[in-house]
Every structure is written in structure tokens, then in C-alpha cells.
Amino acid sequence: MGGILGKAIFNTNGTRRYFLEKRWGDEGNILTAIMMNPSNASHNQSDDTVDQLMDVANVQLGYDGLHVVNVSSIIDGTSRNVTSDQFSYDSINWSFISKAVSYGQATFLGWGMKGQKGIIKQLDSHSEIINVFRDVSEKLYTYEVLKSKDKKFITNPIYYVPHPRPLTEKEKYREHCNPANHRS
């Protein structure tokens, strides 16, 4: 892949991806991205979102690699197909998230509204997952924080970090300024 090395960790039947690495430098800083759920990107294959995040890591930040982990480890490249059942707590997945967050120099948050609901669901039964973010708040970044417009949440609004390629405006953040300027 044009000088980009990759590594991916899947479960034994290939239905879950726990970790994806793309590396173009031998050593150096890593951008960790926490997204909603994995696409079919793998060690030797990419997709538009991973390409965009590699551009952020390499061109905008000058980093040497990208690690991608997800709130849900279940592979489905179409977010419209993702259901709340796919956000059941998975200790293996959270182990990978925790390691990736602690290893990276910056962590980009981009899980969207469905991912936010998934985290809330997981927090209900496993409140300790908040500790993954507690000691690294200075290195958490996003393009912006949005408030849900869903009428179900008028009295108790949900705030979330948008996916870097939102369904209705896939190029919205393509030329966005460096996420390092937007702490969450």
C-alpha cells in the first residue's frame, strides 16, 4: 500500500476487528482514533475514513502512524445497519481501546451519535470504562461537539462527537483545520 504498513487484529471468525494500525514511519508519534464500529479495512486494505484519518495523522500532525479502535468491534461498513445490540460491552474490545489510548500521543474521538448511545449503554453496566479517558483528557481531540437534535432528548440532551465523514456530508471535515486545535 504505497509504503504504508498495516496490522489488524480480528476475532477468530473475522466478524470483529479490535485493532487497526497504519504506519508510514518507523518510530514516532501515533494518532489513535476511536470510531463507532469497524469497516472492512484491514492490514492491507483501507477505506475513505481511514484514508482521511491517515491524512490528519501524517499531513496535519506530522505523526508516523494511526491506530483505529471502535466503541463496537462488530464489523459493518454501513453505519445504517448498526443496531444498539452491537454495542454490548466487550471486555476484549475495551482492553484494546485502553491500550491504544494510552499508547497514542493524541486521541481523536469520532464515534457519532450512535457510538455515543453505545457508550452510554455500556456505561450503564460497566461504569469503569470512563477511566480509559479520565487520565488522558489533555490528549483527546475532535472536530466539534454536537448536541442531538432528536426530539427524544429535548429535556435531557445528548452531546456527541461527530464521525469525521458524516453520512449526509462526507466531505464536511475533509479540509477542516487540525483536530489538535479542538480539545473535547
| Strand line-up across the major sheet | 1-2-4-3-5-6
Please tell me what the overall shape is: globular
Sheet of most strands: 6 strands, mixed
Please state the average pLDDT score. Answer: 88
Poorly predicted runs are none
Structural class: alpha/beta
Explain the layout of strands and helices:
Layout: E1 5-10, E2 17-23, E3 30-35, H1 48-60, E4 65-70, H2 91-103, E5 106-109, H3 112-125, H4 131-134, E6 140-141, E7 146-147, E8 159-160
Parallel strand pairs: 3-4, 3-5, 5-6
Antiparallel strand pairs: 1-2, 2-4, 7-8
Description:
The chain has 184 residues and is of the alpha/beta class. Helix content is 24%, strand content 19%. It has helices at residues 48-60, 91-103, 112-125, 131-134, and strands spanning 5-10, 17-23, 30-35, 65-70, 106-109, 140-141, 146-147, 159-160. The radius of gyration is 15 Å and the shape is globular. 39% of the residues are buried.
Which descriptors would you attach to this protein?
184 residues; alpha/beta; six-stranded mixed beta sheet; two-stranded antiparallel sheet; 8 strands
Please outline what is shown here.
The chain is 24% helix and 19% strand. By secondary structure, it is α/β, with parallel strands linked by helices.
